């Protein structure tokens, strides 16, 4: 049942993207394919190739995504991540250069967000059973013990290719960044194989390749979590780049009528409870955007907003549970804008600090 909820959410998100299909200005019909990987539904659309060429590109891109899952998933026993995890507190493990690179980015994201994003979140994720069929609420004692193990400073990166988790019981989980990385890699493959107009949608994380065939900006919707029929709260217009959302509605379970979602606060061990519904990041690199969306969500509206404003070439849209929408200062041109598409929400100009909560 829970899996069903997840898959439905993803299909809706996929519709968000393809619903914004550009006017046809190339000789080709858009060619799209779905593929289940990384615990979600992925969809890639190629706009500028014949059906036959597009099929080859799509298969190669999805093949690459499967490779990333095999190397980086916590849910694949022999993944490099699990090899590191099994040697926690014992010894360092040699990994591929790409896993090493992604871990460096994860570590950097943890550092700049002061641990709001933390790739050593694994023990907590496992205890909550976030992606399992039997999620549960760990008791306070268990949480206290697990929180001791979550600390990116105890992840030691030994150049050029060895990784060591200092304490026994530590566990990496790249669930908050791997999807973005997979999108970046799919984009690289798509480009290398000659397409310069495509849309990559990995479970709602969007990465654009080139421009829309008709030259107008892309339009990407941010989903309304209360409505499963593909309604959007805002539409983001952009020339290119990535649009990555972290929200409470992607994965969750109920216990005693209380909803527990999958983005964990590294200071409490509980699902982050900051009054936010979602955070959407817009920037170039999708792995970075993925980590930042998780980080900003955990930091909450005020701190998260300030954090994103402090970064170069990164913009964000924050949507609160009380239906307010905040956007960072870079959304200010026809090439990069946010427009409302839902009557129950309102866009608040300026920063959250300038606006006292209602
Ligand atoms: P989604 O997977 O829905 O796109 P996120 O990018 O926010 O959402 O990633 C959430 C996943 O990241 C969780 O399922 C878990 O595996 C992991 N995670 C949860 N909390 C954190 C955190 N504070 N820091 C890093 N990773 C996290
Ligand atoms: Mg993320």
Provide an overview of this structure.
The chain is of the alpha+beta class. The chain has a domain at 2-54 and 196-355: ApbE-like domains (T-fold, Roll). 32% of the residues lie in helices and 25% in strands. It has nine helices and 17 strands. The protein has helices at residues 2-18, 51-72, 80-86, 97-112, 122-128, 140-147, 178-192, 286-299, 301-309, and strands at residues 31-37, 40-46, 93-94, 155-158, 162-165, 197-202, 205-210, 218-223, 232-238, 242-247, 252-255, 258-261, 276-283, 315-320, 324-327, 336-340, 346-348. The strands form four sheets. Strands 1-2-6-7-10-13-14-15-17 form a nine-stranded mixed β-sheet, with helices on both faces. A hairpin with a 2-residue loop joins strand 6 and strand 7. Helix 2 (51-72) runs antiparallel to helix 7, helix 4 packs parallel to helix 8 (286-299) and helix 7 (178-192) packs antiparallel against helix 8 (286-299). It is globular and about 55 Å long. Adenosine-5'-diphosphate binds next to helix 8. Adenosine-5'-diphosphate is lined by residues 117-118, 121, 125, 130, 173, 175-176, 179, 246, 250, 262-264, 266, 290, 293-294, 298.
User: Unreliable runs, pLDDT <50, ≥5 residues?
Assistant: 1-24
Average residue-wise pLDDT: 91
Topology pattern, helix = H, strand = E = HEEHHEHHHEEHEEEEEEEEHHEEEE
- Per DSSP E runs of 2 or more residues, the count of β-strands stands at 17
How would a crystallographer describe the biggest sheet? 9 strands, mixed
Distinct small molecules: adenosine-5'-diphosphate, magnesium ion
CATH topological fold name of the domain at 2-54 and 196-355: T-fold
State the distance separating the first and last CA atoms: 36 Å
Number of helices: 9
Strand order of the largest sheet: 1-2-6-7-10-13-14-15-17
Shape: globular
Give me the secondary-structure category.
Answer: alpha+beta
Question: CATH superfamily assignment of the domain at 2-54 and 196-355?
Answer: ApbE-like domains
Strand content: 15-25%
Rg is 20 Å
The appropriate CATH architecture of the domain at 2-54 and 196-355 is Roll
